[in-house]
Amino acid sequence: MPPATADSPQVQALVSYLEHEAQPMIVLDPDYNILAANTAYQRQFGTADRPYLGHKCYRVSHHYDLPCDQAGEHCPMKRAFELKGPDRVLHIHHTPRGPEHVDVELRPILDGEHRVVAYVERLTTVRHASARPRQAGLVGRSAAFNAALEAVQRVARSQLPVLLLGESGTGKELFARAVHEASDRHDGPFVVVDCSGLPETLFESELFGHERGAFTGAQHRKQGLVETAAGGTLFLDEIGDVPLGMQVKLLRLIESGTFRRVGATETQQADFRLVAATHKPLLQMVAEGSFRQDLYYRIAAFPIHLPPLRDRSADIPMLVDSFLQRGARTGQRIAVQAAAMARLQAYDWPGNIRELRNVLDRARLFADDGVVRPEHLPDWLNAAARPDAATPAPAPGDAELRRLLADGRLSRREMAARLGLSERTLYRRLKTLGLG
């Protein structure tokens, strides 16, 4: 059977079927051409000035001239062809709203002789992370960040416990919230338990609640955080700090799905999805006897390693822009001079994103004219920067920005959309480069 074409009966039948799907879906031939798309795709990704039917998927989604695998990315079509089965990957696509994280699932259509004649691609936009600067939430587009985000997408719809591992300041609570928001429990509560901030004497009462008169000072029945999380997600932050005496009770909660309030005899049924996080080496703690092995294996069904900021330095300009947006007064615009940005990208950030945010909050106070310069950064940061930081490195997209300006055919609004920036961010970038 020859490969499918746009007007072939197979494609028409597929499109008729896909029209009932709420998710955006397209049909591709083995040569990467988009043959058809359902209404959901047309609404979310199609625009009148960006035709897609008959065009290569990698040109429409990535603006590449070559397939993804030849441009240094994972190509689901190549893998699906090899497997003769589905493949899934997280990509950053160009959309009418700018660059976005998109979860791509590709399934081959086989003929009677097990040959691939077409592919069906399902696209799910990731709403809980941004590939552009934004006021709140997860921000990034580096390979290390995308790998962690892809793991979140894979596990979110299951009920498996998730263990987030990473250094302090890597955004574990934001990733935990992303798991919750992408799960079937997203309409339920997201309850945070700070395990490092609870003394052992209060831990059981805070987690399970207590009855009136259970101990001195317990004048009323109190609902615990486990009950508060019913129907949603319970996030145990810094679980490595849970005292050994409480670990057995936590294990019983996870294994049986039941608990008792302090001072009660009645057993309560728990209903939560567990996400835990720690910066501590739990396996080493297990070997040393300070963390229960059975508890570790209950919480570590799906570990996700969160990258330190030094492994995602390409995200720093985007994070900087986001933090400056979040703390700016109405109408205030703050740019970062290229030399200062180079210093920020050259530093190793042992405190990770939390440390970066603190440095920017300080630098903002010195940027009287709206531009952060190297002298506005802490002395220890400038001293710790690598020698090559003295040469300002162009921010991602600067070369493309200069090319579009020289071309002169796009308005500032169109230019911002092409680069995946807000107009305000574009003007700040132009000002920093001396082109505004």
Describe the structure.
It is a single chain. This protein is α/β, with parallel strands linked by helices and 436 residues long. The protein is 38% helix and 19% strand. It is built from 18 helices and 18 strands. It has helices at residues 9-18, 39-45, 57-62, 76-83, 143-156, 172-181, 200-208, 225-228, 244-256, 282-288, 293-299, 316-327, 338-346, 352-366, 379-384, 398-407, 412-419, 423-432; strands spanning 25-28, 34-37, 87-95, 98-110, 116-125, 129-130, 138-139, 162-165, 190-194, 209-210, 222-223, 232-237, 258-259, 268-269, 272-278, 302-305, 335-336, 371-372. The strands form six sheets. The protein has a five-stranded antiparallel beta sheet with strand order 2-1-5-4-3, sandwiched between helices. A hairpin with a 2-residue loop joins strand 3 and strand 4 (98-110). Helix 9 packs across helix 11. The chain starts with 8 loop residues before the first helix and ends with a helix. 36% of the residues are buried. The model is unreliable at 388-394 (pLDDT under 50).
Treating each run of at least 4 consecutive H or I residues as one helix, how many helices?
A: 18
Per DSSP, what share of the residues sits in E-state strands of 2 or more residues?
Answer: 15-25%
| Number of E-state strands | 18
Task: Provide the helix percentage.
Answer: 25-40%
What is the oligomer described by this structure?
single chain
* Mean pLDDT over the residues: 87
The rounded Rg comes to: 25 Å
Strand order of the largest sheet: 2-1-5-4-3
Runs in which pLDDT lies below 50 for 5 or more consecutive residues are 388-394
The N- and C-terminal alpha carbons lie at a distance of: 58 Å
Structural class: alpha/beta
Q: Which term fits the overall shape?
A: globular
Largest sheet: 5 strands, antiparallel
